[in-house]
Amino acid sequence: MKNTAMVPIGRYIDPLTDFGFKKIFGSEPNKDLLIAFLNELFKGRKVIHDLVYNPQENNGPAKHYRKTIFDLTCTGAEGETFIIEMQRAEQKFFADRAVFYTSSKLYEQGPKGNKHWDFELKEVYFIGLMNFSFDGSATEHYLHWVRMAEEETGYTFYNKLGFIFLELPNFKLTEKEIKTDLQRWMYVLCNMAQLDKIPVILHKKIFQKLFEIAEVANLKAEEYMLYQKDVLDKWTEYSVLKTAEERGVEQGIEKGAEQKSLEVVKKMLAAGKFTIPEIANFAGVTVPIVKRIAQSLKEKK
Predict the structure, then answer these.
(1) How far apart are CA 209 and CA 206, in angstroms?
(2) Model confidence, pTM
(3) What CA–CA distance (Å, rounded) separates 241 from 13?
């Protein structure tokens, strides 16, 4: 397949695009990839043997509520729910969103009508793959397990609700430093789009299947078009974010320079040795501004 994209397309799909994420983790024939990934995250806390993919939308508790749209949601063999979200751009209330999503999945377990119920719930887990970091997060920590625990002792108060957050920018291990399969999964998520061959550290059966699925040359024509659009969207998001950041810095510099000029005007007026035109020229402001500041200082006396 020839590369006719408006932006560079590598040999392997980018798992941090909507298409790439769902291509790798969201299809029934490839669910062994998601099961392997989740088992590495849970690392013995629970073992997932099978998953059933659920509809990616969830009705609210009443008709007037909006539907909740998930990236992926699955049910385990024991009835537990896994919500897997991939978030590329920083979102201020991402943790709130995680709590809201899990709450909706807990709420829908209640029986409809007048049935008796003892309030026993199935487990619900939220897994967030974040291409940004939480404010104040330690830069060397990329995996966060969050649970309901007693504050003083750390004793688990409730073990049927859990949150796993993966801060991808905080993963900085090189190939030589990788030792565990979870680190291998993190390496794939962070670097696959830039690779042109399978690294030696990933020569395991599950990862070989992953790279075969992710080979851009194996995509059908309509899949390639969808992926190409996703890559362009990702680049557009980055461009918009970068522009906003740069404008913020520029505005900050302008505000700082303006404040400094006003302080100079005030000091020169207080000295009483300079004319208003001289002050305006020296401080780089207009004569009316100097006059307004002079009037303001008089009124404060």
Answers:
(1) 5
(2) 0.73
(3) 23
